[in-house]
Amino acid sequence: MRLVIVTGMSGAGMSTALDMLEDLGYYCVDNMPISLIPKFAELVYANEEKYSNVALGVDVRNGKELSGVDNMLEELVNNRCYYEILFMDASDDVLLKRYKETRRSHPLARADRIDKGIAKERELLKFLKNQSKYIIDTSTLLTRELKKELERIFVQNEQFSSLVVTITSFGFKYGIPTDADLVFDVRFLPNPYYIEELRPLTGNDAPIRNFVMDNPVAKDFLKKLTDMISFLIPNYILEGKNRLEIAVGCTGGKHRSVTLANALYEALQGGNYVVKIDHRDIEKDAIRKKL
Hints:
The chain is α/β, with parallel strands linked by helices. The chain has helices spanning 14-23, 37-46, 69-78, 92-102, 114-124, 126-130, 143-154, 206-213, 216-238, 256-267, 284-290, and strands spanning 2-8, 27-30, 53-57, 83-89, 134-137, 164-171, 182-185, 243-250, 274-279. The protein folds into two domains: 2-154, P-loop containing nucleotide triphosphate hydrolases (Rossmann fold); 164-290, no CATH class.
């Protein structure tokens, strides 16, 4: 029997997570009165042949009942109804953007500003986040990536880490990504831009990949970079970091940085964390030429 309490920030994907868990075979109930959860848990635990996996949605819509969550969780443990908490989160900027795009009002904002409602909610749910076994930050996750992560945790029972690693290639002439935690400059490598037949291509094309990675210096750099990132990731996880933004830059963000970002992305596969790739400036030179 697996009992999962799904909670988190409004707009971070809690309803989507419940829908996905239901598709994965979980019996899901959203917004059940908190006072009823212990009794409901007893019933499903007594009928494990029928309810093998259950997910319950709990959020600020429960209103004043949220103050009783600690007692409810204690009652579950006393009744040997063991649970796991999944907390869906996202950055304040992303939540605000999502509310503006959908033109929905925040449940705690009422006539006030949305950002104030988000701040109130974050404070109210802090205690639940601190008790969560799983924290998934959806700020940069695509829907298919979220589904894959939920399946990995709640169906395949793989070891979980809440860390999402995003590797971004960029061009220095367009500015360093403002949210980057780690920035690496690969302008020391030979530039394919100066070879006429390679200039229109990108680091996603085989001739550019071969040109860049056939250089022993590039191979050595990739090995040292992979070793360092592999060392840092477990330590970031221990510190509770949810997102790691790695930026790899060259002059225009089209050739060398794309190649090395792709190579690092491949090298980091297989860990207990999510790895994403983004090529921020790969099309900018092409767009400028059209203009």
